[in-house]
Amino acid sequence: MKVRNLPFDPGVSGWTQIMPAGLEYPELKQSQTADVAIVGAGFAGLSAARRLNQLDPKSRVIVLEARRIAEGSSGRNSGFMIDVPHNLGSKDYLGTLDDDLQQISMNREAIEFANQVADEFPMPEDTFSIPGKINGAASENGHKFNLKFAKHLDHLGERFEWLDAKTMKETTGSDFYLSGLKMPGTAIIQPAAYITGLARGIYTSGVEIFENTPVIEIAREGNRWKLKTPAASIDAERVVLAVNGHVESFGYFTRRLIHIYLYASMTRRLTQDEVQILGGESRWGLTPSDPFGSTVRRISGAGDNRIVIRNGISWAPNRTVSAKRMNRLTQAHDRSFDARFPQLGEVTMDYRWGGLLCLSRNSVPAFGELEENLFSACCQNGLGVAKGTLSGKLAAELICGSSSPSLEYFRQQAQPRKLPPEPFASIGGNLSLRWGEFKAGKEK
Ligand SMILES: Cc1cc2nc3c(=O)[nH]c(=O)nc-3n(C[C@H](O)[C@H](O)[C@H](O)COP(=O)(O)OP(=O)(O)OC[C@H]3O[C@@H](n4cnc5c(N)ncnc54)[C@H](O)[C@@H]3O)c2cc1C
Question: Which residue lies with its CA nearest to atom 41 of ligand 1?
Fold first, then answer.
């Protein structure tokens, strides 16, 4: 089977630009054999490789990444590794109490896994820490979302803290927010630094990594799998596809996955004067109370102070987007930034980018053994930083014959539900995104 589309994400992620250059891994130039070949070096692929290396250190594990490490969505996101789902309006959160508790416990399993990664392959606090996050509300509607969320948290026995407008200002330096709901369990990461740190760690533990090596064809040969790349091939006993929505490019889950782009911008470095003028804490992370609002982070490390903002969304069934569209959507970040930080009127954006995300209609992953010895750890839905990590870990455990409540839960999930035929899927999808963005109002 020829791989239909290779990954594409527009713009350069600021996260990769503000950190020291990572290790460079070779391109695959000579054919090799592997016990397990993993396609994709994001949260899912690298977590699968680490777990395999922990469970069966003698097996030869090879990771193939189409681009440089951290150039995909795993190095382009906002860095919230969330334990308690925040998208109140989504099906994710309307399940039974047991289901919600199971989701939270699995997200925490992922955070614990990442925490151990950050301990073992030492990462500084600005790369990985667990300070919690704030659900910020900028409008009465947003506040109502938070009230509803807080009721749900109470019901689940989850801890949270209310922040009033004054505390929000003291934290963020912005008087844009009416209130906030602080939840303590979210890990906040520098996504590109975490991913390159994880890659370096598993590489030193014996996992082989090839970058700039897209898999362009996959075929079963006898009882093994052959992965063709532009210059060579891998002959593997087992394969894990950890390519998120691109699993559809490999011919699986066709018309069962929803592909969308999200967009982010990062300011230039703030001067010391601007840091003073801004005030607030030097690091915080805020997700919007309305799922279609703006995610905002204040980052600092080694004298580098910046603000990162994320909003805007586009429907992308072909897993591509034009530069023009990215420019239009990321220019809108300037308005969201000015509304929150009018005192930083001179501050411009250094980096603007987009990245692909994969959802399914029934919020289930594309997980499991697709064919004999071909595994999928894809379609992470809304909380892909945590869920990507977990699905990679669980794919490795599935391969090694381990069992756990999370693995059982993943294995029992239904298939991603089929999309309606075109053009109805795209018309409906676009309309619902536009409506969500319109309703978000001031929260954007
Ligand atoms: C702007 C933005 C902000 C976001 N913020 C958050 C957030 O704060 N919290 C959160 O939970 N989620 C967030 N997300 C979503 C999150 O980034 C993704 O869900 C997550 O990266 C999924 O991880 P993954 O490893 O499954 O897939 P990916 O990160 O997409 O990794 C898959 C890898 O496979 C590679 N690949 C694809 N095809 C091939 C091929 N043929 N051959 C070889 N390699 C291939 C790709 O290059 C890629 O590196 C955000 C996304 C974006 C774009």
Answer: 215
